[in-house]
């Protein structure tokens, strides 16, 4: 690991670093906020997954989460949203909703994507091991959250790996890639055209087969321009009800898809996770 920057804020440290990621076969950048409590004790960790076109820096600079995280004694890890660098394939048309910046937190099985696009393994295996080895965190107290594509990632990763996390939350998540254009493009390319293979990365499908109930909080803005075509929150509500999987799914009047929405409710999400990370 090589540290790129280390900035003091709210008594803690906002650190950006880079490392060679074996799962992705490329160099990756990521960020971590360490609260002041990490100087004397191992602290719990929230993994934050960002959305389409984002890097590890969007949440760091726009969400305003450091003050609450410092008060709660919680580290926040922000990975990048896809592999990057020379030799990493991108959308042939340079579109923003696939390829670089749009890894969808899956393990790709199709060429030319599978060599590098192994984001599920990176998020659940390589990155946590690196964080544990380099920083004063408690590897047994982890939660996960995210926005849009990252909300999809947080929900599906937690549902697939319920023993790894104490809680999960999401802002404006893509709840069913099986049923939206973003998901159809991404999963069709990364996994192929057999939609049965997509179900392992669809939150609504995973809820129906879940054998463990995690605390889940979802916030969705009613003024979000992507709600009807891409996000389809009502499908998660239906899957939750049909599967008797309790979730807090809240609609927030007037809020859109931007980081202004995230900044407005991030403190509530951090407090939501804190109650499960400290019990």
Query: Remind me, CATH topology?
Result: Rossmann fold
CATH superfamily: Alpha/Beta hydrolase fold, catalytic domain
> What would you say the CATH architecture is?
3-Layer(aba) Sandwich
Shape category: globular
H/E series:
EEEEHHEHEHEHHEHHEH
Q: Major sheet: order of its strands?
A: 1-2-3-5-4-6-7-8-9
Mean pLDDT: 98
Largest sheet entry? 9 strands, mixed
CATH domain class:
Alpha Beta
Which structural class matches the secondary elements? alpha/beta
Query: What is the C-alpha radius of gyration, as a whole number of Å?
Result: 17 Å
General description of the model:
The protein has a 9-stranded mixed beta sheet with strand order 1-2-3-5-4-6-7-8-9, with helices on both faces. By secondary structure, it is an alpha/beta fold. The protein has 9 helices and 9 strands. It has a single domain (2-277), classed as 3-Layer(aba) Sandwich (Rossmann fold). The protein is globular and about 50 Å long. It is 34% helix and 23% strand.
Layout: helices, strands, pairs:
Blueprint: E1 2-9, E2 12-21, E3 26-34, E4 43-49, H1 57-62, H2 66-72, E5 75-79, H3 119-134, E6 137-147, H4 149-160, E7 168-171, H5 181-191, H6 203-209, E8 216-221, H7 227-231, H8 233-243, E9 248-252, H9 259-277
Parallel strand pairs: 4-5, 4-6, 6-7, 7-8, 8-9
Antiparallel strand pairs: 1-2, 2-3, 3-5
Task: Name a few traits of the molecule.
9-stranded mixed β-sheet, alpha/beta, 23% strand, Rossmann fold, 279 residues, 9 helices, globular, 34% helix
């Amino acid at each position: 690991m090589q540290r790129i920057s280390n900035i003091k804020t709210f008594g803690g440290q906002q650190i950006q670093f880079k490392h060679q990621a074996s799962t992705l076969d490329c160099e990756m950048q990521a960020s971590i906020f360490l609260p002041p409590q990490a100087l004397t004790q191992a602290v719990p960790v929230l993994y934050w997954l960002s959305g389409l076109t984002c890097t590890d820096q969007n949440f760091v600079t726009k969400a305003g989460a450091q003050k609450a995280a410092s008060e709660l004694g919680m580290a926040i890890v922000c990975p990048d949203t896809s592999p990057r660098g020379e030799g990493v394939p991108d959308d042939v048309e340079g579109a923003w909703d696939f390829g670089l910046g749009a890894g969808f937190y899956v393990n790709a099985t199709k060429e030319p994507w599978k060599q590098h696009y192994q984001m599920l393994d990176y998020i659940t295996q390589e990155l946590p091991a690196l964080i544990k080895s380099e920083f004063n965190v408690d590897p047994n107290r982890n939660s996960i959250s995210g926005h849009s594509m990252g909300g999809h990632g947080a929900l599906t990763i937690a549902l697939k790996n319920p023993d790894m996390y104490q809680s999960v939350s999401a802002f404006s998540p893509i709840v069913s890639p099986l049923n939206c254009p973003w998901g159809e493009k991404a999963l069709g390319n990364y996994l192929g055209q057999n939609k049965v293979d997509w179900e392992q990365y669809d939150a609504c499908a995973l809820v129906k087969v879940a054998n463990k109930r995690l605390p889940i909080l979802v916030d969705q803005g009613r003024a979000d321009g992507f709600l009807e075509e891409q996000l389809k929150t009502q499908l998660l509500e239906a899957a939750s009800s049909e599967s008797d999987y309790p979730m807090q799914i809240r609609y927030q009047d007037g809020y859109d898809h931007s980081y202004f929405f995230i900044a407005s409710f991030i403190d509530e999400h951090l407090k939501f996770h804190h109650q499960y990370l400290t019990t």
